[in-house]
Amino acid sequence: MARLDETTANERTLMRQTPATAEAQTANAALARKMRRRGEESRFWWLVPTIYIIFLMLPIYWLVNMSFKTNQEILGAFSLWPRNPTLANYAVIFNDPSWYRGYINSIIYVVMNTVISVAVALPAAYAFSRYRFLGDKHLFFWLLTNRMAPPAVFALPFFQLYSAFGLIDTHIAVALAHCLFNVPLAVWILEGFMSGVPKEIDETAYIDGYSFPRFFLRIFMPLIASGVGVACFFCFMFSWVELLIARTLTTTAAKPIAAIMTRTVSASGLDWGVLAAAGVLTILPGALVIWFVRNYIAKGFALGRV
Amino acid sequence: MGRTWNNKAWFMVLPVLLLVAFSAIIPLMTVVNYSVQDTFGNNVFFWAGAEWFEEILHSDRFWEAMGRNLVFSAIILVIEIPLGIFIALNMPKKGWGVPVCLVLMALPLLIPWNVVGTIWQVFGRVDIGLLGYTLRALGFDYNYVNDPFDAWITVIVMDVWHWTSLVVLLCYAGLVSIPDAYYQAAKIDGASRWAIFRYIQLPKMNRVLLIAVLLRFMDSFMIYTEPFVVTGGGPGNTTTFLSIDLVKLAIGEFNLGEAAAMSIIYFLIVMLLSWVFYTVMTAYDAER
Fold first, then answer.
1. Closest-CA residue to B242 (of B274, B216, B265)
2. Fewer C-beta neighbours within 10 Å, C or N terminus of chain B?
3. Cross-referenced Pfam families, in alphabetical order (chain B) (predicted)?
4. Which residue segment(s) compose the domain that A264 sits in?
5. Which of B1, B4, B10, B13 to mutate to test the interface with A (most CBs of A within 10 A)?
């Protein structure tokens, strides 16, 4: 019902615009062509993004390059690409439980955290975007301070808190601890998306006799589906990239891959190839899903406010 | 925005409140607790009042770390903001280049922070790293392990590499929201490239830029993992920023009182900055 109303309204505005004369349109097109020619008068506009992207890709390339080399080759001859590409480094990781468990641990707590964060953030974001209530602004602000809080401040108190509950070295401990910054993030992002949905849709649905849960699941969720996806992505990402808290709260059974990597560096300092391969594998999840959120990345990093 | 007054909305916020209270308020109270007490061990604590705060505010170590961190944040902002604007202005506006640029530029933002550290640690090494090796080959006496200046350069270049894309993406989001009509009007008036930037693009990017500045300042102010992995705070203490110092104090030296007092001062600064951020955001939302 509501969506139908929206489309008719759109059509009406479209019709109002069409009377613009054909002449004006061709003039506009000519001007736009001219502008493009002049605006990008330097034919080298692509130079800046290209140089920047090369600057970004070089260190990553170097890591990938190293991950396909043997240690002898890395330390022996300096070469821009692997002479004898080898998958041995990756084989080490996939065959050694103490390595690949790290990935499993990371993924377990990251997924737990994403589910918890988005599930509790959905109703809260709806409340913030639709209602005014006692202390709403203070609450919203308080959430923000938690997103901005330095993890270093919380590392030790978290350790003591979760020790008291006997939760040290469990996945749920890390998942709950990461809620500190991910729940506020999810609330802010979702609130941004929800405020973009006109309130009339809610009202129409109530008049049509929808109960709140049914309205929320059947009508509202599809409308903010992209927002939920973006919120999930960012919760996933920020939980995935965080190390300080995750490392503090785990010892062996739930140790994240990131912490296992640092240990290897300090202990042996020799296994460069394996270290590089492990690093490449931590970059992959982000690289795989980034395509789907490419248009919302700015919005997500700006807490739903762009 | 016509939001209706309804206190029942509290029930919808309750889960968030409980969850964040558990992971924010309880730990914070622990910190407050430690900051006003002292102990001789055995879990026996006694009241110490503001002693720890006095100690931290009189300690050179704290102010040095604070100074280093402020200088670091300032350098980061001075480099990343103009660079980000410049790159955003030169981004393609349409065509296949847009998604390619967006995805490739966003990639560093999604790399785990310690891997960012690892990447640069390896990249900068003089024996096996492309950067270090090349600099050595060109005749520079580059060594980020022993030379404080080189360590700073490495950490700064790493942060520019890691976070400039955030500024680019935000500015780009601001730029594409400018209707074509503005540019056409400017062309008719014969506006120069600079005038277009100064009077059309910059005002439109205003708020986005403010977000970028605030986010970059806060994140660089609490940077921990990346410099820790690359330099470990060294050589000496030259790249020991506030967070690194705090973790050293709390977990390394187990000096709970001082660490707690420092945490609170740290947190108050962050609160103040969050408030600025919030004011900016709500002013923006009100206009929307």
1. B265
2. C
3. BPD_transp_1
4. 96-301
5. B13
> Distances in Å between the alpha carbon of A301 and those of A294, B224, B267?
12, 19, 21
Specify burial of residue B38 (Cβ count, 10 A radius: 0-12, 13-18, 19+): middle
CB–CB of B285 and A161 under 8 A?
Answer: no
- Find the Cα–Cα–Cα–Cα dihedral A20, A22, A28, A33, rounded to 10°: 150
Q: What are phi and psi of A96, to 5 degrees?
A: -110, 115
CB pair distance less than 8 Å for B110 and A116: no
Domain ranges of chain B: 60-287
Do B32 and B262 form a contact (C-beta atoms < 8 A)?
Answer: no
Residue A62 lies in a domain: no
Distance CA A36, CA A280 (A): 40
Q: What is the DSSP letter of A290?
A: G
What DSSP string runs through B197-255?
A: IIIIIHHHHHHHHHHHHHHHHHHHHT--HHHHHHHTT-STTTT--HHHHHHIIIIIS--
What pLDDT shows up at residue B9? 84
Q: Encoding tokens for residue B173?
A: 């989001």
- How many residues are present in chain A? 306
**Distance from C-alpha of A289 to C-alpha of A97, rounded to nearest angstrom:** 26
Query: Taking chain A (306 residues) in consecutive chunks of 10 residues, what is each chunk's mean pLDDT?
Result: 45 46 62 53 77 94 90 79 86 86 91 95 92 88 86 87 89 92 92 89 89 90 91 91 88 82 59 87 88 84 78
Query: How many whole angstroms separate alpha carbon A54 and alpha carbon B273?
Result: 34
pLDDT (tens place) for every residue of chain B, 288 residues total: 567 888 888 888 899 989 888 888 888 888 888 888 877 666 677 787 787 888 888 888 889 999 999 999 999 999 999 999 999 998 888 788 888 889 999 999 989 998 999 899 889 888 888 888 888 888 888 888 888 899 999 999 999 999 999 999 999 988 888 888 998 999 898 888 889 998 889 888 888 888 898 889 988 998 988 898 888 887 888 888 988 988 888 877 878 888 888 889 988 888 888 888 888 878 877 776
- Of the candidates A85, A72, A93, A70, the one whose C-alpha atom is nearest the C-alpha of residue A273 is A70
Output the domain CATH number for residue A110.
1.10.3720.10
**Looking at this protein, which amino acid is placed at residue A68?**
F
Pick the CATH number of B60-287 from 1.10.3720.10, 3.40.50.12780, 3.40.50.2300, 3.40.50.300: 1.10.3720.10
The complex's ipTM works out to: 0.86
For B84, the closest chain A residue by CA position comes to A52
Report chain A residues whose CB lies below 8 A from the CB of B166. Answer: 301
Q: Report the C-alpha dihedral over residues A283, A288, A290, A292, rounded to 10 degrees.
A: -170
Helix A97-130 and helix B9-20, axial crossing angle in degrees, nearest 10: 150
What confidence tens digit (pLDDT) does each residue in B244-257 have?
Answer: 988 888 877 878 88
Q: Say what the pTM is.
A: 0.84
The pLDDT value given to residue A12: 46
Backbone phi, psi, residue B4, to 5°: -85, 150
Residue A65 lies in a domain: no
